[in-house]
Design goal:
Largest interface: A-B, 46 and 29 residues
CATH architecture of the largest domain in chain A: Orthogonal Bundle
Helix content of chain B: 40-55%
CATH topology of the largest domain in chain A: Rna Polymerase Sigma Factor, Chain: A
Strand content of chain B: under 5%
Number of strands of chain A: 0
Radius of gyration of chain A: 18 Å
Oligomer: heterodimer
Order of helices and strands of chain A: HHHHHHHHHH
Shape of chain A: elongated
Distance between the termini of chain A: 20 Å
Number of strands of chain B: 0
Strand content of chain A: under 5%
Helix content of chain A: 55-70%
Structural class of chain A: mainly alpha
Largest sheet of chain B: none
CATH class of the largest domain in chain A: Mainly Alpha
Order of helices and strands of chain B: HHHH
C-alpha cells in the first residue's frame, strides 16, 4: 500500500502564484479570488461530486464552499497551502452535508446520478480494465456508485482523494487532519469493502 | 499492494472521467459572482462597520494588545467607581463622615469655655 498516485496536485500547483492571488484577494481584489475559483473548482467539483454522487447537490455545495472561503479569506494566514486550506473547508462541509442528507427521509439511491455512461473515454477505459465486461459499462458504473455509497463518509473521502483524485497520503492527512497511518488504514479497509461489491468486475 | 487492491483502484479510478459539461465552470463562476454581489449588498451597515473595525485592529498589529488592555483596565476602574450601593448595603461607620448628634455631651467641658475663664489681672 505504499504506491503513491502518479499525479501530485499539491506539488504541481503554482504555490507562489496562489499566494500572490490570495494576498491580492485579501486586499479586496475580487478578480484575484475569481482566478482562484476558476483554478480550484474543477478539482473540488470532483471531490464533492464523488462524495455526494449527485450533480445538483455538488453544484449547491460548491457555491457554499467558495462563499465560505471568500468570507474566511482574511483569516487565512498561509500556514498551509491555499490548496490544502480550501480542500479542508470543502471536505468538512461535504461531510456535514452528507450527515444531514442521511437524515433526509426522501433521499435514496435513486437520486444518484447515472454519471457519464456514454462517455467514450469511460467506455474505452472500462474496456481496458475489464475486457470481459465491455458491453456493460452502465452496469459497472451503477455498481461503482453503489459500492462507493456503501462506504462510510470517512472511508469514501479517502478513496475519493487517493484513488480518484490522486492526492498523496501526506496531503490527505493534512486535509483531513488525521495521521498518515489513519489514511492508509482507512484506504485498506475501504478497498476490502469495495472488493466485495465489485467482485464480478475483478479479473 | 495486492493484485486485488490494484484492480479495485483501477476500477474506482474510472470515476475521474466523470466531469461536467463544457463551459460549466465559467457559468459556475458567473453564478458565484452574482451571489457575492448579492451578499455584499445585503450586508447591513453595522456589519460593514464591524468588519472595518476588525480589519483596522488586525492591521495595527501588536499595539492592539496594549490598547485593548488599557481600555479594559479603564472600563473596570470606571465600573468599580460608579457602581451604586444597593438598598440593603450597611454603611461602614469608619468611613462615614463625622456628625454631631444633639443628645450627646459636648466635646469641650463647660468650665473651659470663654465665659467661665479666669479673669487675668496685670
Amino acid at each position: 500500500m505504499s504506491t503513491e498516485p502518479s499525479s501530485e496536485p499539491a506539488s504541481n500547483i503554482d504555490a507562489e502564484h496562489d499566494r500572490e492571488l490570495v494576498r491580492r484577494a485579501q486586499a479586496g481584489e475580487t478578480q484575484a479570488f475569481d482566478e482562484l475559483v476558476l483554478k480550484f473548482s474543477p478539482r473540488l467539483y470532483g471531490m464533492v461530486y464523488h462524495m455526494t454522487s449527485n450533480k445538483e447537490d455538488t453544484h449547491d455545495l460548491l457555491q457554499d464552499i467558495f462563499a465560505k472561503a471568500y468570507r474566511s479569506l482574511k483569516r487565512f494566514r498561509g500556514k498551509s497551502s491555499f490548496y490544502t486550506w480550501i480542500y479542508s473547508i470543502a471536505t468538512n462541509m461535504t461531510l456535514n452535508f452528507l450527515k444531514k442528507r442521511k437524515r433526509r427521509v426522501a433521499w435514496s439511491l435513486d437520486d444518484v446520478d447515472s454519471g457519464i455512461q456514454n462517455d467514450e473515454a469511460m467506455v474505452d477505459i472500462a474496456h481496458a480494465a475489464n475486457p470481459r465486461h465491455q458491453s456493460d459499462v452502465n452496469e459497472l458504473q451503477k455498481k461503482l456508485n453503489e459500492a462507493l455509497l456503501s462506504l462510510s463518509e470517512d472511508h469514501r473521502a479517502v478513496v475519493t482523494m487517493f484513488d480518484i483524485q490522486g492526492i498523496p497520503h501526506a496531503e490527505i492527512s493534512k486535509i483531513l487532519k488525521v495521521s498518515e497511518g489513519t489514511v492508509r488504514s482507512r484506504l485498506f479497509y475501504a478497498h476490502q469493502q469495495l472488493q466485495g461489491h465489485l467482485e464480478e468486475f475483478i479479473r | 499492494m495486492t493484485d486485488y487492491d490494484e484492480q479495485v483502484r483501477k476500477i474506482v479510478s474510472l470515476k475521474r472521467y466523470e466531469t461536467p459539461r463544457d463551459g460549466y465552470f465559467e457559468d459556475f463562476l458567473s453564478e458565484f459572482q452574482q451571489r457575492r454581489r448579492r451578499e455584499l449588498s445585503q450586508k447591513s451597515s453595522t456589519a460593514l462597520f464591524l468588519e472595518r473595525l476588525a480589519t483596522w485592529f488586525r492591521e495595527i498589529g501588536s499595539i492592539k494588545w496594549v490598547a485593548g488592555a488599557g481600555v479594559a483596565y479603564a472600563a473596570v476602574m470606571v465600573a468599580i467607581l460608579m457602581w451604586p450601593a444597593g438598598p440593603g448595603t450597611v454603611p461602614d461607620s469608619n468611613r462615614a463622615p463625622a456628625s454631631f448628634e444633639g443628645g450627646q455631651a459636648p466635646l469641650i467641658p463647660a468650665e473651659e469655655t470663654t465665659e467661665d475663664a479666669p479673669e487675668l489681672k496685670f
